[in-house]
Write the structure tokens for this entry.
Amino acid sequence: MALDTTDVEKIAHLARLGIDPADIPEYARNLSDILAFIEQLNAVDTAGVEPLAHPLDATQRLRADEVTETVDRENFQQCAPQTGAGLYLVPKVIE
Amino acid sequence: MNWETVIGLEIHAQLKTRSKIFSGAATRYGAEPNTQACAVDLGLPGVLPVLNAEVVRMAAKFGLATHSTIAPRSVFARKNYFYPDLPKGYQISQYELPIVHGGYLDIEPDGSASKRIGITRAHLEEDAGKSLHEDFQDMTGIDLNRAGTPLLEIVSEPDLRSAQEAVAYMKKIHVLVRYLDICDGNMQEGSFRCDANISVRRQGAEEFGTRAEIKNINSFRFVEQAINYEVERQIAVIESGGAVVQETRLFDPDRHETRPMRSKEEANDYRYFPDPDLLPVEIDQDFLDAVAATLPELPEARKQRFMDEFSLSAGDAGGLTASRDQADYFEATVAASGGQGKLSANWVMGELAGALNKAGVDITAGPVSAADLGGLLRRIEDGTISGKIAKQVFHDMFNGAGSADTIIEQQGLKQISDAAAIGGIVRDVLENNPQQLEQYRNGQTRLLGYFVGQVMQATQGKANPKQVNELLRKLLDS
Amino acid sequence: MHRKTLTQLAKGLRTGEFSSVELTRGCLQRVQQFDERLNCFITVTGEQALAQAQAADARLQAGEAAPLTGIPFAHKDIFCTHGVKTSCGSKMLDNFIAPYDATVTQNLNAAGAVMIGKTNMDEFAMGSSNETSFYGPVNNPWDLQRVPGGSSGGSAAAVAARLVPASTGTDTGGSIRQPTALCGITGLKPTYGRVSRYGMIAFASSLDQGGPFARSAEDAAVMLGAMAGFDPRDSTSIERPVDDYLSGLEYSLEGLKVGLPKEFLGEGLDSSVADTVAAALGEIEKLGATLVDISLPNTSLAVPTYYVVAPAECSSNLSRMDGVRFGYRASDPRDLEDLYKRSRGEGFGAEVKRRIMIGTYALSAGYYDAYYLKAQQARRLIREDFLKAFATVDVIMGPTAPTPAFRLGEKADDPVTMYLSDIYTIAVNLAGLPGLSVPAGLAGGLPVGLQMIGNYFEEARLLNVAHRFQQATDWHEQTPPGFD
């Protein structure tokens, strides 16, 4: 599957990655090579094979409904780019 | 040309657990911003989710109460999109294998014929945080306290055909989740939210029309208004030659109209895939049996039992079972009153409801307990006081004056039932009102009421009305 | 002291031959002396290390020694360390001071280990050469013009150069075992779920596992014992007691059946590596094992499968790096879109962006079945191959990497060529099995690794086989020239 610049732009947008337009052709080439490599999988017959989402056959453990965390907001927000009145700040979003 | 409305509702009920669905942070409403968002809720690098057992039980309860299938194996999936109140850049939800599916709820939209509304599925997911747009210049503030609160998303089949049906369904779900004690149903606080999928089609058409989704409606009234507006809007669009656009819209409660939501303008590719940090949830019969054992008597069954056991009308039984707390209170009152179903029903829905409403107090927090009210009703039943006096007594009880017996004693409100005493007063009244007596004897039998009134006045309302009536008639008609 | 193994050092500390402070100072000195050429460390936590060493000495004096009390180690910069920069090799987290400790960090602290610093790595663990790091490449101590392998290049090189006796790494497609082989040391990737992933910044959630680097199987056994354990904070962590990895080290290998997959000896395998590994297998035979030819027929699917599953999972895992709550934020964002795109565009390197895009594509509408679902089906086939094999053999062996360390820049231009460096290791992650690598010889003066793959939770057996092999050979005692 060969990807062109429009494809790369769409994918980059979905992933919110800002890519310099000058770099897009190289990304398109690299991604196409990788996809061509991945497409070796198409040669395999996997009809009726159950997908393996986890290496183990384990099931989800449940935890008791208890409050076990006391939040130190200062601690968590010391690594935040911008806060105000305890809130994380981002450029205004219009609904 | 007749139009048909097709509506499906997606209700998000916040499950009332102590801690979040995937972390041990508290879920209490109203905390200072970001003081209930732990590392897991903040989506910091390296954190991982662990599932709260109680949410599984609550979802299973809902499934059992709506005749649904509870999946023996269900899977959490990531719904990927970018928004500042979604810290991980994905919401942990359920996609292909939800925990509950294939149930139904019967509604009576106009009080009469029953209609079955399918429940396609109910799945578990985490809530996002909140955005505050007002307080900061050119910035939006994000509070992640709500991030990670468990939600049960309940999706109906597109079986609803009118705003009225939609509201009836929504109300029934609202009653049910509170009965099951899985959600507090507080719409102002956002614990119960509704999205409506609305489309129109020509009567008789087979296919559904293009639908619009109206998001985050938080009251029954708004649901009705939103649907009505949207239906008219869509019809107008089609009739003027246009086509309805599939889009997400917001309901504006001030203008009573819907408008497109800017941030959802583009169709989102959510790239769902099973969350690799979580394992499949397996539920066996033992688990379900344990949950079933905790189910309360459901609203439908309780309503029917009230009708049968207490000879109540459907209307009264329905009214009493609208809230589990109220139904509990009613039954406790009946027991305390010595088994008086109808009388208890009248008082709970009448005097009590009125007083609680006026005081702005919930039935569980009212000053008059069911035992106390039952005690009061006993005194009516055994003739100690009249119904009219009882209302006075109740008023005093509500204001903290004590039990019925205490008040009756203190204020000397005991009904006068002594035949001789009443007889004396009745004869006095007749003697002192010769004109009216004459008029009565001449045919104005309505004056009976006047004489009764005079006896009551003379006894400060304490004379046993039945006896007064009987005696008066006896004397007047003799 | 840098010549002693961890086991020897632990003994010396307990007998009072030297103190942890002395030992720690020694390591810090060597780091100062050599790291400029190697670039193993992103952060050196000298002060904190000495404080930890002092506390360790106090415990040693009080007779309260735990297995790692006072032992210095280097920690891959993928593990969160409270109050200490945790960059994951990326500009995106260059300013991130972790507000909490990873469980592995807590475990090592509790075991008394002394953290010398955080090691360099491929950005977000994506790479096989440690050339994608924001902090520059790591140079292989055996030849400074060559790569140490990746993604845990810094941790592997630090042990190889005897800067520290042990270090930690993570392995998603070979990121412990491959640098282990290229650097001539011993390293182990445990069974999936053996070591907690809480606080270990996620690359591919269903593949990542943390594990130790050391200079011998015995040393690795001590480290693994401290790192491993059930963690209630990790839903994928397995509730199973940690084995005593030391008690069975000496078991005889008599009767051990060793499977040699014929698919591991095909195209792409350097002949000098093939020869070195063959000789090493001869030693295994001498120890009493029987070599059995086996087949893992779906081996050729492993790398393509991995390059769907891993990017898909990481594309989602890295969405949280958005400039909002932590990490790099682009300056003066015009609006929210701009904030996201520029923060992520500027914060992530090219390889990370490539993998995010592959993953996004593989999961996107219309492609999910063809890529992701298909890959997960292939994954089950790969796992079945191993389970079938383990019905007839006890351990599977082969070369860890197809070539010795390659030159810096040699494969950096072609992603697919780089991906094939992991050809022997990737299938093991897909199946979730444990695997280790031990030095098996030198080819052209460069280390060659022998990989040993075990059945689920057979780390003790793997360490036993590796230990016996190391008792009969001395490749693991070789030091890169200039670093002894």
The CA atoms of residues 54 and 61 of chain A lie 14 Å apart. The beta strands of chain A are 62-63, 83-84, 87-91. Residues 24-38 of chain A form the longest helix (15 residues). Chain A has a mean pLDDT of 92.
